[in-house]
Amino acid sequence: MILEERDYRIKAGYVADFLEKYQTLGLPVQREHLGEPHGFSCPILANLTMSFRCGVTRT
Asked: Would you call 28 helix, strand, or coil by DSSP?
């Protein structure tokens, strides 16, 4: 199992843009090399700067 964690700091109002770009640009590359992800988790801490840790689990 591979557990990938990343930390991001994104200004409020730009999280949706980031997730859209990840879905169209980042996820296809990850799928090609690692296969389908088992799950995602992105707890969000609301602040002036959005801070969240994304975890992707693959089996």
From this structure: helix
Cα(31)–Cα(9) distance, integer angstroms: 24
Size of the chain in residues:
59
| Beta bridge partner(s), residue 11 | 49
CB 1 within 8 A of CB 47: no
Distance of CA 28 to the CA centre of its chain: 13
Query: Which residue segment(s) compose the domain that 40 sits in?
Result: 2-58
Radius of gyration of the chain (CA): 12
Say how many domains are in the chain.
1
pLDDT tens string 16-45:
888 899 889 988 988 888 788 777 766 655
